[in-house]
Amino acid sequence: MFLDLVTDPFLDYLPGDTPVANGLVAPLGDFGACGEECWFAVDGGTVRAPGDGVLRVEGTHLAVDIDYFENHQRKSVTFWVDGATASAPAGPVRAGDPIATGTQIEAGLLGTVEPLSDFVAARRVLPDPTEEPVLAVVSHAEQELRIYRNGAEVGRYEVGFGQADGPKEKRGDNRTPVGLYYLVQKSTGPFDGDFAAYYGGYWMRINYPNAFDAARGLAQGHVDEATASKISSQWQKRQWTPRDTRLGGGIGFHGWASEWSDESSRRMSWGCIVLHLSDVEAIYAALPEGTMVVLF
């Protein structure tokens, strides 16, 4: 399936000219709030880049454009400062780099409604697919899996999905998740049960649900706060997350009972990503446990 390189959505997950933040730091640690978007330091303070990004300088107006990943989505935010004196040249900056000094300044964020301090505090650590040694990216729209090693594509495969449309929300909905996960289990069997043949001899489990699924589940009453917190913590550690809640679980990659056609509906599983029998062995070998898996 051909995609124009300019619009190829897979490129969002690969290294490019724009830095991607893997965590944010407090940019105004020397300052105290003196009002909405107003910050004051008695003897002057240092303004720091809140994340890896690109600094722009226009006189006493500075801005750091920051790309970051929220679950499977690549997003952007701009940290801006007025009334400070630039102490760094325009161009790429790293989180925590000094970029300006000042006494009374204005500062804030564009691209979010969250207050600056809350936004940073919630994103001290961020996933960065562009830095993963091995990365698996699956497009629902393109029905395709691509595997990358150190940012270079090493495999491209057609895939199938769950029997129902839309992202997975709860146990039994037969939908395939959308989100960022990690591979936590691999097996070549033997498999038991009535549906053992449908593994196609290979099984690769991802740690669905993740922290974002847990937050949604908490809001919907599918999990309690303790369970949501446990899911979030174990997901960030690339560990198994609870699979016995109303959010469901047991999601992964596997083969099929027989070879299937790309011309079919590809709505085949109870929520897993289905692989061609001709591809599954190579994919199994290419993806070690701990691999980041992005489903978008």
Explain this structure to me?
The structure is a single chain. The chain has 296 residues and is mainly beta. The chain folds into 2 domains: 21-121, Glucose Permease (Domain IIA); 129-295, L,D-transpeptidase catalytic domain-like, CATH 2.40.440.10. It is built from 4 helices and 17 strands. The protein has helices spanning 116-121, 211-220, 225-236, 277-286, and strands spanning 32-35, 38-48, 53-58, 61-70, 73-82, 85-86, 91-93, 98-110, 134-139, 144-149, 152-162, 179-187, 203-206, 252-254, 267-269, 273-275, 292-295. Strands 1, 2, 3, 4, 5, 6, 7 and 8 form an 8-stranded antiparallel beta sheet that branches. Strands 9-10-11-16-14-13-12-17 form an 8-stranded mixed β-barrel. It is elongated. The model has no long low-confidence stretch (mean pLDDT 96).
Largest sheet, in brief, is: 8 strands, antiparallel
* Mean pLDDT metric: 96
Order of helices and strands: EEEEEEEEHEEEEEHHEEEHE
Provide the gyration radius in Å.
22 Å
Secondary structural class: mainly beta
Beta-strand segment tally: 17
CA distance, first residue to last residue:
17 Å
Q: How much β-strand is present in the residues? A: 35-45%
Tally of separate helices: 4
What is the CATH superfamily classification of the largest domain? Answer: L,D-transpeptidase catalytic domain-like
CATH class type of the largest domain = Mainly Beta
CATH topology of the largest domain: L,D-transpeptidase catalytic domain-like
Summarize the structure in short.
By secondary structure, the chain is mostly beta strands.
Write the layout of secondary structure elements.
Blueprint: E1 32-35, E2 38-48, E3 53-58, E4 61-70, E5 73-82, E6 85-86, E7 91-93, E8 98-110, H1 116-121, E9 134-139, E10 144-149, E11 152-162, E12 179-187, E13 203-206, H2 211-220, H3 225-236, E14 252-254, E15 267-269, E16 273-275, H4 277-286, E17 292-295
Parallel strand pairs: 9-17, 11-15, 14-16
Antiparallel strand pairs: 1-2, 2-8, 3-4, 3-7, 4-5, 5-8, 6-8, 9-10, 10-11, 11-16, 12-13, 12-17, 13-14
Helix pairs in contact: 2-3
